[in-house]
Amino acid sequence: MDDMREKLRRFIAEEILLEEHSSVGDDMPLLESLDSLGLLTLVAYIEGQFDVEIPQGDLVPGNFSTPLAVEQLVRVHLAPAP
Amino acid sequence: MYDADVIVIGGGPAGATLGALLGMGGYSAMVLERDIHPRHHVGESLTPSTTFVLQRLGFLPKMEEAGFVHKRGAAWTAPRGPLGRFVSIALAEFPAPDAFQDYTYNIERDTFDALLLRHAAERGAKVLQGARVQEVLFDGERAVGVRVEVVDGHTIDLRSRVVVDASGRAALLGNQLGMRRKDPNFDQYSLFAWFEGLEPPPPGYEGYLFLHFLDLEQAWAWQIPLRNGVCSVGVVTDKSHFLENGQGMDEFFWGLVGMNRTLAHWMRGARQTRPWSVDPDYSYLNERFIGDGWLLIGDAVRFVDPIFSSGCDIAMFCAAYAYDAIDHAFRTGQEQEAFERYAKTIVDGVSVWYALIQEFYRMKNIFTRFATNRRFRPDVVRTLQGNLYLPEAQERAKLLLDAMAQANRAVSADPANLLRPGALRPVG
Ligand SMILES: Cc1cc2nc3c(=O)[nH]c(=O)nc-3n(C[C@H](O)[C@H](O)[C@H](O)COP(=O)(O)OP(=O)(O)OC[C@H]3O[C@@H](n4cnc5c(N)ncnc54)[C@H](O)[C@@H]3O)c2cc1C
Question: Which of A31, A71, B231, B271 is most buried, taking the most CB atoms under 10 A from its CB?
Fold first, then answer.
């Protein structure tokens, strides 16, 4: 799971924000630097990398406010159905 | 006595393609072109599917010889994304089953159109340049020929079994018969020129068509890499935004370029090498496009908006289907049936393009969502490859469009959704 956190943070930093990996912390506010292409690139990465489907209805501010929130979103969809 | 089996008005991609096919089929065709090629023209990026028609004409070797830039994909940027970040699709990802190359072309239309028209002549069509058709001649309801101005003020009448209008947006017959209507939903204007000194795209994306979305409703810019380091850059906006308050073209163009960070950055050292071309008022349709002894092909039928580079695709497929219809009519005498089948094929295909354009403008983010989503990406890529005239392509596009429309409704009904236009406005 820490592997997932690491991968997500790296992707958000290097592919979405085009910044140094180390400059992105778990609690960094994302929404003010995220644009629509960035959001959808991130969602496509998550879906491909972790083999989950993020429903369109989940594309709301709460799920993308910080790298931590994104991580939680992924975990929800990774969790096996009860 | 006929001067030709078929008279084709206009020697653009539509007219030249039809001229070549008729020549190859053993028919006598006369292509009448108002201008003298090479002449400048807008429309410089081809869909992948046009290569099928170009191959049928035996024209691809000439394109390779001319060295037209290979276009392997398309990419797009958002107005406020970080510099240089884009989303892309590659042709090689989901090639059509019968695809024989994983690229299409960007073309300088002066060179391309001149070569294609010469090719038509080599395949047996009679090509007359500097010959402006004034009107189509009718005998009752039936088109029987054209009146053409060969020298200033001097006209001759030419007769043929079928007349094809390929006059592009001049829409000669559409205007003559009062069939041309403004499009009810679109009123797009565009301004473009050629530039040198743009920042080259990152390695692996050479030849890609770039679309840059602007911080303005309905507006975007194209960046089409041509030969010798030249790039065509054009902006498209709704008429209501075009040249506001007596603005000059430079000011207008660079103002729009400034509405996309990546485009502005890539163009910071660009030098304009060609005068501006303005294409106003180009969204229209014709109520009818077949009749007794006549057919319309290409832009003469309808033009809406260039977002998907569909113009030459439509022009050349119209020509190919028109050839089949004319050939059938000549062989069987069943002209009406053959022309009606042509009309249905084209209406169905062009309607799909139209629906895609509408869906795109309704919500660009939905388009990007579908293009980046694993489930839908193959269908998006295959649909945008063109040739939407076959039933299976139309079926695929229809399912895609339905899914997009549904996604659109869901997003519109959800005030919190981040795909809503303007929901994400990154600062700085
Ligand atoms: C802003 C913009 C961007 C575009 N971008 C693209 C793109 O990236 N890719 C793409 O595929 N398409 C694009 N298009 C569309 C493309 O330009 C056309 O669809 C294409 O040129 C249609 O070919 P055609 O042969 O039907 O018409 P044309 O290429 O216009 O040819 C018509 C010919 O008829 C001649 N003619 C006109 N009147 C007469 C007459 N009375 N007598 C004799 N000859 C006559 C003209 O001189 C002309 O040579 C774009 C269009 C616009 C407006």
Answer: B231
